[in-house]
Amino acid sequence: MNFHSSTYGFFFIVVFTLFWLLRARRRERTILLLLASWFFYASWNAKYLLLIIFSTVLDYWVGLSLGKLDPKLPENQKKRRLLLLASLVGNLGCLGTFKYYGFFRENIEFLLSGFGIHIPHLNVLLPVGISFYTFQTLSYTIEVYWGKLEPKKSFIDFALFVAFFPQLVAGPIVRASHFLPQIQRFPRIDRNDFMRGLYRIAEGLGKKVLLADLLGAHLVDKTFIHGSPIEGLQALFAIYGYAIQIYCDFSGYSDIAIGSAMLLGFKIPENFNAPFKARNVRDFWRRWHLSLSTWLRDYLYIPLGGNRKGEFRTYLNLFITMALGGLWHGASWSYVVFGVIHGVWLAGTRWYDKKGFPAFPGRIGKIIAIFLTFHVFCLSLFIFRANDFTLAWEVLLRVGRPWHIPNMSPYVWAALIVGFISHYLPETTKKRVEEMFVGLPAPLVGFFWVFFIGLIAAAKEESIPFIYFQF
Known about the structure:
The protein is mainly alpha-helical and 471 residues long. 70% of the residues lie in helices and 0% in strands.
């Protein structure tokens, strides 16, 4: 059930209506959202619903068990560590089995090829969203273990935290401390919130269908295949196109998730903040996939020692964190290389700053810094997209061939231009557009949606899944 499908539209209207009819009945509206969320997840593959229920039951039990053990008593420390280990092994074990088993099997067999060792195949499909809800449930047990969060006693509330359908399959990764208190509050929504929710959904649908899918189908996918005739300047534009595509696809999902949650009276955190305006890699990761970057910082980088154990360990911790962050995206060495590039880039930026070397000065310096940051990101991203080192090298060679005016359709040109211009618009301008929408009278809002849905239907050639569903 993709966000940009009519099925999701009907599903959401039903859930929205029933939720607000049950507004005064906390338990019933929570059960409604939980059942709706499980149904939403089961619409991809019903049997994988058992996985998310397993993670929910495991971490609910671990949380309650940790809450019964006084962390100040030395005799409880071993039990507490074993409980945390149970959560880590259970959740990461499922993630490793379904997402990484084939990757590790192939690499181990390659390393041991001289010994004639063969490891059994495991023919399983990757459960959609498993990387997201695994990190979400782990953040809960880790924070309960650290004593930063009280364990949740209501199973229904905790299960809804794990499975809340707007952000279930591609984030943002929500923290329990942010979401669980909202379940207990009496839901409220005024006209402004309602209109802002509609605006975010429209913005996300536009990014996905009118920009990301169009660039993917008519430029990027035709370039990133072996033997493609696309070369020169058009191949370079395909790399730029993929940067716009993956941003619009992923941030579009986040927009729809945030808007859908808002219409149900929930607020979930922002996941993007104009990442192509970043001046360096640190700034980039403060703008791109915020829920993942903060998760990696809080639950991996800082526990590894962060920057508290000397310069060498700091660089090593950055490298490990980003390499594992790359692997989180998928079971392929190209994803690991993507993470390694960012780890080296972060370490190099830190070294540059520690040495006191000057930054580019003034407005021109800012533009140069943004230009360089974007292009280093594109360098890592085309390896990410190729998912095959041979193909990545082939695309890079094709970029180096003679440049001619690209033979692209007007729609591709329009998507590239609109994608870049809309991204680099001042935030004040974007805010004014949103406020104009919020202030529209009801008849004009209805007219807008009739026109907009017609435009989406006309532009959508097929139901293309969101890119991050595969992660």
